[in-house]
Amino acid sequence: MSTYNTSHTTEFRTCKVCGSVFLNLDLLIDHCNEQHKNLPYVCEHCGRADKYLSDFKRHQLMHSGERPHVCLVCGNAFGLKGNLKNHMKSHAEKPYYCEKCEISFKSEEEFERHKISHQKEKPHVCVECSKAFVYNYELKWHMLTHIGTKAYDCKVCGKAFKRISDLKRHMGIHSKGQ
Question: Residue 51, Cβ neighbours under 10 Å: how many?
Answer without folding.
Answer: 12
